[in-house]
Each structure stands twice: as structure tokens, then as C-alpha cells.
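Quick start: read one record
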Amino acid sequence: MTCFNGGCLKHAKMHCYKKNHPLALNMRRVRKETPKDAESQERPQKITKVAIGVPGGLSMDSEDYFEYQTKPICFLCDKELDPSQSLLSNAATALITANSASKQEDQKAWENQVIQCEHTITLQQEPNLPKLASKSLSRCGDCELNTNLWLCLSCGHLGCGRKNYDGTGGNGHAVEHSKSAKHGLVCKMGTITPEGTADIFCYDCDETRLDPFLIDHLASFGIEVASQQKTEKSTAEQELEQNLNLDLAKNMEGNVELDKIYGSGYTGLKNLGNTCYMASVLQVMFALPEMQKKYMTPGAQHIANCNNNPAQCYHCQMAKLADGLMSGRYSQPPQKKSTDDEKKEDESQEGVPPRMLKSLICKDHPEFSTMRQQDALEFFQFLLKTIQQRERVSNEDPTTIFQFGIQQKLQCTSCQGVKYSSVKQTDLSLPVVIELANPPLKAPEGVEKEKDSDRFARESQSSVPFEACLSQFTADEGVTFHCARCNKNTTGIKNYRFESFPKYLAVSMRRFIFEDWVPRKTGVKIDVPEAIDLSRFRSAGPQPGEVVLEQAQPQKEEGPKIKESDVEALMGMGISRVRAERALMSTGNQGAEAATAWYFEHMDDADIDAPIEKPKPSTSSKPSVTIPEDLVNQVCDMGFTPAQARKALRETDCNMERAVDWLFNHPDETGEQDAPQPSKDVAPMEIDTGSAKFRLLGFIVHLGASTHSGHYVAYLHKDGQWIQFNDRKVSKSVNPPIGTAYMYFFERL
């Protein structure tokens, strides 16, 4: 009751002694007894909006269902206090009615902010639009569907919506019309209200939008808003319904009811609102012994000794999540109930909500800070980078288990000289070689344009060997480059090989592809064996007799490059050298002809004969500014030198977080030096000669055929069986869909 830090009894006492905050309020939320005449009670408000705590959304007020029992406690005196004291009573009331961080996050998770866009503001409707009768608005203009209809606000075309992942929705005639007619704005029929609101979608933005002139736009078709009644669910309402009832993972295994599993290592993660991408990655990460060793026992010790605000402490939050997932305290078998209905309600885990960790590490990220669906691979990369930054000082970075080296070999086809270069990375991106699918993919005859959902279903009947995707990645590729030995542009052969192997190999499949600049997801399955051998993809390194090409050294530009032949050509026309050079510089050194034309237009300029100042090389592209020492010290606390800190802060306008990110993106940067530093010798290439065999440890599946929606589920091989982690639900897998995975994780043998 001093700083409003919340905790269980154990950690509340720990907080009391560390902070000398003795007074606490014990709050117990108890479900109210349901009256016998419950049917006569007022029904809860109908959910009509994707929001929490706002009119039409899910209620944040639990007074109708729960009541609070409170008691003030003094931990130092080890006794309860009189709750009737006015100060304690007022404080208790304030705490109960406060909008907690959890409620604020829930509200942020579901509130769907709909805004207008340039297309709704600048909509141009065609002249002489037809007046649409109610009969003409009863079905799609291209098929017989009479629900989920979208009206083109530019010309009045009425088309059905896109097909959903479960086959419902429509045949996509509205979006087909939008592509052919270049009309982007549509209104969903049946969602128009007398107040002048409706479900508006902009295909150009691919987002739900607000049309400030909707009444006028609909009036152009003879549709009077005041007489309309809402008869269909909006896209936002359907999204809420899907998120509340989503169970795609069950359908993924042949619609089989999976047996739940409980105990240490089998704890689910609660979906905070479109956070399945985060949950799937965290389950894979914390299933690894290295992550458990780093954040489990040492994490408990850190929490006991940490004096920071737990909500702002990275190590506190990682330790708390590790304990939640691995302790087993939050994954207990359900207690038997008296009725089947009650048992059914209690048969699933509540799940650990990683709310505070997400809020801390994602708060400044433009995508992960939101509650919109994101990409699991991108979050995996972001999480590894975050851990690297936070653990730099401790020199105990657990993400090194994912790091490996990829070597590029480039050989000139003219002189046979070779050039080697290496890069460190934490995941491998492989193409899905659709051309090698078995059975071969053939477009259906007589269909001019196949729908994406139909094509996805057809592709899912074919498969490609995993090794074929690896071979495609390492195959020779023809390139054009400047050969230092030939001293000319020539052709070369480029390929990639493994220079080293990681403890755990993360592989992503490029299922999201572009065709005619339109993204789509391929449904082709990947034949992934339980064990793989990457020996034939190992780099051999430089071979005896190979001529290694010199690495091109970047040259600092001290001024514009001017061809002397162009200068002489202009001087041959009687133009002075100064004027010739100025003309060539002003035309971007595009040749004597362009410079001559420029000269005759500017020959009377006042500065035409002024000496040309040659720019001096600068040690920094940024202007000289004073770097605050406190910022330098904060960057140094992350494990960097003062010279590196000053260089990074200068490059990022003294933004500390951007400076740290800049340094991680420039790992070889030595920083600002008082004197020139000798160049470092390039370390000799070391080829990893250890085992190249791996076994499949887990995978992440993206469910659905859409590129902008869907659901992520993680699978892990534990204790001799496959386990499905579907947000808060943890079950024994019957038929793990290995071939449909988006990401694979292999363990080195």
C-alpha cells in the first residue's frame, strides 16, 4: 500500500523487507452465488464491438459476477489491521476500483482503432450512378450468395467477400472487382446503421476504415441511412468471435480430441490478444536446457536480491516467465467436479499470461508493441536480438546456441580466381521448391483464375523433400561482379555452405511468396525426416592451388570523380578548366554533351569562374555535438567502450536505445579514437569439422491460407512423444503436422 507493487504472499513479504514497505492489502476475488431466479435477472450487455471496457465491448466491470474480500496486513507486526480505519478503507477502495495494468493491456489488446484514409476522403464516385433497389442488394452480382456482400462505393458493384480459413465467407468477387476496376473502397451490406455507421474496407490500404462522408456516398445510390437496420456482423465482430472461440489446432490433426497433459514443462501461455506468434516462440525457447539454466534458478536468486522495479527489470520478467513455464505450479490436473459441465469448464489450463514481459521488451517496437497479429519468425529474431543486448554485460548470452556461420564462395569464370566471405546468423531461410512437388502441381483445366483458398488446398496434397530445399539454397548461382584480378566486370559462380554449425538450427520455410506483386501462402508440404545430415553442405574452405582474389577495400570519396577526357573535350571548345569542371560536376558527370548544354545556360552565372572547393574528408558524417557523459555511461553499462558509445550516440542524435541498436548492427565498429588505429588482421577461416547431424526437436505451424491472418501453434518432442502447445492448451499430439510447418528447430547430435 506504499508503492502499489502486487505480488503473491511469498514475494509480497520479500518486497516488504527489501523496500521497508510493511503495509499490504490482501485482495481475494470471490464469485458471487448465482440466484435461483437467474433467468429473471438482467442479461449481460450484448458484445457488438472488438473492445474491452467501452460501450458495446466486453465489460471490464466484474461487479455483476464477483465481489472482493479485503484485509489490510502489517508484515512487520505480522497481524491484520482494522479495515474500518478511514485511511485504510479509502486506500482499499481505491485499489479495487483502479484500472490495473492488466486491464489497461486488455483494453489495448482488443480496441480496434478505425481511422479514415486518403481513399475515403478523396473518393470519386462515377457520374449517373444507378439507384439501387432493395431487391438488387439481395445477392452477389457474380454468384448466388446472399450474405457477406460488399458494395463498391465507386460504381455500385455488389460482390461477395473473401473465403475464410474454414470455408465460410464468400467467393471473393468483391476483391476481384476491386483489382479489375481499380476501385478500392467497399461497404458491407447489412452493417449500415441509422446513425450513419457501417463496415467500410479499403482494398488499397488492406484495412478497415472510417468513411466520414458515408451518408452522402450511400445517398448517391438511393440508400437512405436513416431507414437502415443492422442485420449482419461486422468484420470486427467476426474477428472478436474468432479470437474467443479459436480452436484451429484441433482440426489440424483430423478433428481428433487431444488428451491434455500437465506438469513441469507442460504449462500453456495465455493469449493476450493475437499473441499466438509470441507464445509459440517462447514455448520453443524455454524448452531448451540452456534457457532454463540461465533464467530458472539464477532467476529466482535475482528476484530475491533485485532492488529495481520488477515491471521494468528484464531479468525479473524472464525469471518469472521461466518459473511459470517450468515449475509445474500452474499446470495441475483439474479437480473432479460434480457435473460434466463443470468438469468441462475446468479441464483446460488457465495459462501463464506473459503480459509484463511483452510490455517491457516490446514497448518501443512499432509492430510487437501492438496487439495485432505478427510474424513468428520476425519475433524470434527480435527476441534473440533483445536477449543479446540485455546479456552483453553478463557475458552469458544464451542465444549463442543458435549462431552459425554461412560462407559464400564466388569464383570468376574468366580467371578462375575465388573470393570467400562469411556471415554469422541465427536462422536459415529456405525456399519451398514448388517445381519439385510430388505429385506435380497442375492448374485445374477450364478455370481462368483459381482462388487462393482452392490453390492452397490443392497444393497441400503435394510435398517437397526437405533436402531439395537445402540443395536449392546451396546451389550454384550465376552473378555479375567486378573481378579485381581481371580488372573488369565479368560473370561469376556463387554458392553458400556451412562454415560452422549451431547447437540448435532454426530453419524457416519461405511459405509466403509473391506472384505478380501479390502475396500469397503456399500449402505445399515439406517431407522433413526426424534426422538430417548436413555433411555435404559443409564448406571445404580455400583449396590448394586456388587463387584468392583480393578483397575490395571501400574508398572514401573526397570529391566528385571527373573524367579528364570530358574536361579536355570541353576545353577544346574554348571553355576554361574551372568552367569545364563546374559544368561536369553540376550535371552529375554525365558526359561532355550534358555539361556543354548546362554551360551555355549558365555561362553568365556570377560564380562561374569561382574556384571549386574540394571537400575535405571528414571523420564523421554527423556535425560536432557534445555527447552527454551520462548517456555514454548508460551505453557503456551495456558492455561497450566509451569510444563506441560516443560514436553510436553521435550517429543516432544522442538517442540511447537507437545507439545500442546501432552498435549491434555494427559489431566491428571500434568507435571514435584519439589517434588512427592500426588495421586488424583478418582472422584465418576456421571450418567446423564436428558433427553435421541433427534431429528434429520442434516446429511452429501457421494455420490458415491467408498471408495477413491465421494462428500459430508450437509442437515439441518431449519425453518420447510430440506435444502440442496451442496458447494455454497443452496436449498430446496424435498426428503432428510436421510437413505444414513454417519454422523447424533441429538439435545437433
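The CA atoms of residues 84 and 128 lie 74 Å apart.
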